[in-house]
């Protein structure tokens, strides 16, 4: 017996389906089904996952595309026999989704009337309306409609089947068997019930009437199907499946063509633009090797028919350039010489030699990879330009699948099981997910969950099951799909939560699986900061700068000396604790060193044990050896150690004999091996391939371990090359124009690794004067000014928490030429009391008040508001006590998040509240392995996956930042201080390696009570 399941919902029918598309396919294959239709409700979001599994594992089962749709009291499953039906279904889903807000849909009768190609499986509801719908369907869609009979084996089952048979005879519609599958195995019933409760926002025992009566909506064996359905019904399902020939691989992307001038081909126009760009980029003439590379790239673009893609990117970046929006392209194709000539990237090809095979892979038939980062504060202008140019029908963002993670799983499952919200939040707050030696289940039991109770067991099992399940679709950060014709011919489109945004129902991985191109329009805060810094430099020095100008000037040794000292607070990519620890060891001295630096401080190289060999070889402590010339060609520029993702893939090809297609599968497996374990299936082939080609088995094992180490964290050289440009540009600006650079950074927050407070601490260490917020001198933004014949930074109103930007603009625009003389002047200009109170809290009224308390007295003074005294300067008779330094400090942080007065550690030390301790600037004089006590404000906690349970704390004292290493056992034994301290005393051991200094924590002491009310926020576990 052959059987095709034509009605099956995956977990992309959000909070309905209880199994992943891949699980459903595998189960259908196991049961010997000939075909499986994935028919999620008004969605095609799950079909690509099923398609990719079948294709990659060459399973002998046909995938059929379809969707469940509901209209009033009609339920139908639409099935796609061919491409025309598929486009029709995409249109219907798009129209229904676009009529409604995100997450819902509104079908209209016209949508059903317009169907000309889709097969219709009608699912009678058993209500009186069935007669009307039977007549309607037989009238308009007679030749393409079936009655789908389900066997749910509940108390209505026999009556329902009889009713369906009557409808079939009455309207002459054939019957087919369908399962209405919601789960691949009956063991998922409990999860399905829980999903139903979550969808109703209630506990399971409150939604009993909505729950499945049994597990009959699980996938069934053919033996069971034969017992439940008449043979003719099963045969009809098989006949329908045989008539379905559409495959997702038949989708063909077509580029928009309006970018090409009349009378030219796309390739001719691209060559013209590259020719113009060559003259712009290479003012002193084009080196012969560069010219040859350009021609090679252009020929490949033409051969693989990608000119429209490059023209589309070019058009977008030229729009950004015309609006003064800073941008930088990255990705393997972005770092080509063609993209340099088209001004898509500022990466100078004379400074880096990215593997040509990664430009566009002809052998792997991969589309080109180009991401373009734009200023994060102005990217919306670029997005709206794309929508305006191509219209909503031809342009939409890719989706991002929001999945259940630990916190959301605990909250939703807990609520569905009736666990108190307060208890769930207590669990979430006190579980340390970075403790890899004590899993979250054990920690929750320690926190009070009863492990032997039915509810406790269900809670743990269901949280484990639901983690990774899709919760809803969101919009991708900037991946656009732009087509020549209506996009809904290719994929369904729906509304995003954000106004003026539409998204397709597939995410970036789905698009990649189908080899459909997207244009990544991404946001990067550092580009905003660099552009603002360029503007400030031009404003104050009349010097015009661009990123390309900085790269053309080649490497500046003074800038690299600053980088080698890890003086990189605020600098792009090399500002983290881990990067700062590596900089004095790797000592980057040129652009390509920065490329390596950015890529090597990543989980991939660290887990693959590549960092120490690289450093030893770079320092001449270890010989550089290559087992073959082929391996040398791949690894020579990184001293024989694979640092980049491209090198790992190339090694598999040259050392193990992988084909291009196999190498592409390896890359995909690397990207998801922790989730699926797919990488292990390549182990035997890799080891066997290398040993057959004469490589030592030890070398082969090491290469495989390094590939495993890369996991999903392997960093492409092409991305690192683009990031290195911005790292150098930001370092150059910090070295030569620190006041302009930090002002730009502060005006670009939130972004980057550091808070305004930490940036200002670094500003002061660079002897840049910082002037306070002042109602008579500040503007909304921070700005650069001259102070005592030096560049200084005047802080702006934007730092004041809760201050309305329009009110700040009013303060500035109405400010008298001689400045405000008293509070009443501000009131007379329409500044409301709440704004005045915020100004007083921020000590921004100090030009006419002695302190915050005095300013508040003036605000409360009602006499000055009387008509008799209007315009008069009244003498203040109240004698207020001035705030002490601690009160000032607390209010500085409360009102603005920063202080320009003494550092908290300085104040506490001067007040005698701190026991003896060592400051950051004194650690260098301590001997290796000596005992030490340090104290600081906690500004960061990092627990990377590579660190085997280790957490890296950053403590800020009044001389700088201290790096503290906390082992898992220490964290577990002193959990309260580890998780909650704002001010931390650490007793530990100094470890020194060259210029790199750490403190290995032994005892953690929470000193936060010394700063009651202190509102510093640390950057935790990023």
UniProtKB/TrEMBL annotation:
Matching SMART domains: POLIIIAc
Q: Which UniProt keywords apply?
A: Cytoplasm, DNA damage, DNA repair, DNA replication, DNA-directed DNA polymerase, Nucleotidyltransferase, Transferase
Could you confirm whether the keyword Ribonucleoprotein appears in this record?
Answer: no
Q: Which Gene Ontology terms describe the biological processes this protein takes part in?
A: DNA repair; DNA replication
**What residues form the membrane-spanning segments?**
none
This entry's Gene Ontology molecular function terms read: 3'-5' exonuclease activity; DNA-directed DNA polymerase activity; nucleic acid binding
Q: Reaction catalysed? A: DNA(n) + a 2'-deoxyribonucleoside 5'-triphosphate = DNA(n+1) + diphosphate
Pfam families, A to Z: DNA_pol3_alpha, DNA_pol3_finger, HHH_6, PHP, tRNA_anti-codon
Domain Polymerase/histidinol phosphatase N-terminal residue range list: 4-73
The kind of enzyme this is, by top-level EC class, is transferase
What are the record's GO terms for cellular component?
cytoplasm
Lipid biosynthesis as UniProt keyword: no
Recorded hits in HAMAP family, A to Z, give: DNApol_error_prone
Function statement: DNA polymerase involved in damage-induced mutagenesis and translesion synthesis (TLS). It is not the major replicative DNA polymerase.
Task: Provide the protein name.
Answer: Error-prone DNA polymerase
Q: Lineage, please?
A: Bacteria, Pseudomonadati, Pseudomonadota, Gammaproteobacteria, Alteromonadales
Q: Which gene encodes it?
A: dnaE2
């Amino acid at each position: 017996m052959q059987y095709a399941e034509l009605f099956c919902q995956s977990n992309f029918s959000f909070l309905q389906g209880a199994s992943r598309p891949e699980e459903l396919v595998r189960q259908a294959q196991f049961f010997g089904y000939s075909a499986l239709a994935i028919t999620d409700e008004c969605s095609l979001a799950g079909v690509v996952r099923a398609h990719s599994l079948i294709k990659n594992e060459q399973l002998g089962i046909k995938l059929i595309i379809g969707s469940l749709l509901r209209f009033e009291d009609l339920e139908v499953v639409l099935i796609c026999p061919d491409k025309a039906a598929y486009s029709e279904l995409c249109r219907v889903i798009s129209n229904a989704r676009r009529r409604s807000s995100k997450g819902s849909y509104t079908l209209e009768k016209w949508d059903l009337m317009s169907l000309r190609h889709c097969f219709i499986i009608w699912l009678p509801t058993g209500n009186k309306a069935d007669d009307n719908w039977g007549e309607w369907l037989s009238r308009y869609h007679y030749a393409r409609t079936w009655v789908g009979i389900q066997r749910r084996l509940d108390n209505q089952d026999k009556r329902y089947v009889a009713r369906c048979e009557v409808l079939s005879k009455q309207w002459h519609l054939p019957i087919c068997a369908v399962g209405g599958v919601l789960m691949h195995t009956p063991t998922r019933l409990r999860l399905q019930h829980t999903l139903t409760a979550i969808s109703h926002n209630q506990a399971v025992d409150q939604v009993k009437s909505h729950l499945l009566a049994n597990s009959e909506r699980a996938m069934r064996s053919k033996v069971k199907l034969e017992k439940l359905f008449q043979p003719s019904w099963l045969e009809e399902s098989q006949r329908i499946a045989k008539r379905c020939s559409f495959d997702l691989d038949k989708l063909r992307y077509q580029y928009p063509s309006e970018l090409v001038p009349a009378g030219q081909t796309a390739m001719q126009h691209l060559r013209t633009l590259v020719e113009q760009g060559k003259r712009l980029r290479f003012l002193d003439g084009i080196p012969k090797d560069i010219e040859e590379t350009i021609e090679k790239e252009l020929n490949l673009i033409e051969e693989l028919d990608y000119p429209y893609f490059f023209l589309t990117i070019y058009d977008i970046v030229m729009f950004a350039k015309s609006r003064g929006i800073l941008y930088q392209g990255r990705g393997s194709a972005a770092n080509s010489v063609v993209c340099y000539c088209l001004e898509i990237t500022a990466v100078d090809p004379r400074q880096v030699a990215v593997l040509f095979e990664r430009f566009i892979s002809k052998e792997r038939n991969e589309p080109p990879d180009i991401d373009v980062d734009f200023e994060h504060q102005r990217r919306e202008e670029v997005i709206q330009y794309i929508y305006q140019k191509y219209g909503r029908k031809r342009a939409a963002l890719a989706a991002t699948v929001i999945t259940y993670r630990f916190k959301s799983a605990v909250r939703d499952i807990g609520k569905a099981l009736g666990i108190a919200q307060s208890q769930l939040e207590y669990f979430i707050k006190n579980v340390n997910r970075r403790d890899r030696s004590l899993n979250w289940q054990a920690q929750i039991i320690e926190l009070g969950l009863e492990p032997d109770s039915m509810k406790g067991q269900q809670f743990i099992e269901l949280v484990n099951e639901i983690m990774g399940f899709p919760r809803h679709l969101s919009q991708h950060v900037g991946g656009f799909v732009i087509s020549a014709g209506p996009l809904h011919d290719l994929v369904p489109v729906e509304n995003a939560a954000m106004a003026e945004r539409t998204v397709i129902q597939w995410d970036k991985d789905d698009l990649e699986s189908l080899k459909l191109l997207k244009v990544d329009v991404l946001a990067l805060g550092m580009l905003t900061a660099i552009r603002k810094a360029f503007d400030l430099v031009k404003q104050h020095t009349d010097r015009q700068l661009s990123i390309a100008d900085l790269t053309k000037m080649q490497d500046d040794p003074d800038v690299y000396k600053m980088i080698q000292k890890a003086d990189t607070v605020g600098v792009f990519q090399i500002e983290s604790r881990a990067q700062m620890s590596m900089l004095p060891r790797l000592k980057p001295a040129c652009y390509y060193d920065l490329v390596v630096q950015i890529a090597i401080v990543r989980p991939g190289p660290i887990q693959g044990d590549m960092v120490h060999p690289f450093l030893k070889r770079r320092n001449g402590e270890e010989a550089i050896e290559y087992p073959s010339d082929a391996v040398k060609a791949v690894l020579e520029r990184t001293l024989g150690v694979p640092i980049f993702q491209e090198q790992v893939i190339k090694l598999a090809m040259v050392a193990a004999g992988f084909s291009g297609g196999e190498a592409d599968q390896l890359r995909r497996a690397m990207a998801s091996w922790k989730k699926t374990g797919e990488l292990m299936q390549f182990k035997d082939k890799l080891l066997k391939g290398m040993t057959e080609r004469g490589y030592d088995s030890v070398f082969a094992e090491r290469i495989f371990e390094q590939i495993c180490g890369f996991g999903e964290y392997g960093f492409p050289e092409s991305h690192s090359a683009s990031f290195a440009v911005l790292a150098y540009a930001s370092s150059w600006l910090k070295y030569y124009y620190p006041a302009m650079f930090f002002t730009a950074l502060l005006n670009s927050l939130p972004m980057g690794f550091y808070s305004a407070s930490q940036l200002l601490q670094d500003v002061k260490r660079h002897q840049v004067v910082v002037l306070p917020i002042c109602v008579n001198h500040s503007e909304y933004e921070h700005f650069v000014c001259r102070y005592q014949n030096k560049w200084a930074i005047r802080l702006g109103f934007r730092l004041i928490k809760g201050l309305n930007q329009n009110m700040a603009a009013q303060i500035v625009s109405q400010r008298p030429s001689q400045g405000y003389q008293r509070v009443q002047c501000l009131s007379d200009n329409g500044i409301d009391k709440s704004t005045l109170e915020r100004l007083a809290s921020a000590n921004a009224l100090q030009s006419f008040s002695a302190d915050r308390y005095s300013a508040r007295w003036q605000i409360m003074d009602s006499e000055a508001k009387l008509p008799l005294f209007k315009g008069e300067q009244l003498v203040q008779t109240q004698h207020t006590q001035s705030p002490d330094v601690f009160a000032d400090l607390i209010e500085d942080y409360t009102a603005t998040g920063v202080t320009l007065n003494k550092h908290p550690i300085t104040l506490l030390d001067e007040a005698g509240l701190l026991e003896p301790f060592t400051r950051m600037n004194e650690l260098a004089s301590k001997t290796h392995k000596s005992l030490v006590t340090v104290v600081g404000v906690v500004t960061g906690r990092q627990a990377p996956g590579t660190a085997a349970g280790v957490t890296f704390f950053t403590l800020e004292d009044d001389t700088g930042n201290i790096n503290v290493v906390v082992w898992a056992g220490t964290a577990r034994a002193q959990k309260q201080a580890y998780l909650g301290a704002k001010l931390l005393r650490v007793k530990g051991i100094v470890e020194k390696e060259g210029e790199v200094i750490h403190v290995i924590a032994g005892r953690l002491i929470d000193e936060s009570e010394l700063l009651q009310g202190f509102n510093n926020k640390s950057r935790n576990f990023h």
